[in-house]
Amino acid sequence: MKDLNTPAPNPSGMHCPVCGHDCVTGARELLLTLPERFAPCPDCTGLVYDKRSPPPDIDAAEPCPSCGKRFIDEVFADIYRAMAAESDLSGTEPLAAAGTPLVHPGFAMRRPPYLPPRSLVLLSRSIGEQAAARLVATVPEVRGVIRAGTGTPGIRDTDTEPETNTLLAGCDVRADVFSTRAGPVVIYKQQSVLHVEFPRDRDEKILSLEREIGRHRPRTFVDACSGAGTLALAAARAGIPRVIANDAWYAAAYWTACNLQVNREHLGIEGVTMHRSYDDLRRREVAREPLRVATAAGAREVEVYQGDLRLLSTVLPPGIDLTAIDLFEKADAEKADRIVRAWRARVGGAIFIP
Question: Among 136, 191, 196, 299, which has the highest number of CB atoms less than 10 A from its own CB?
Answer without folding.
Answer: 191
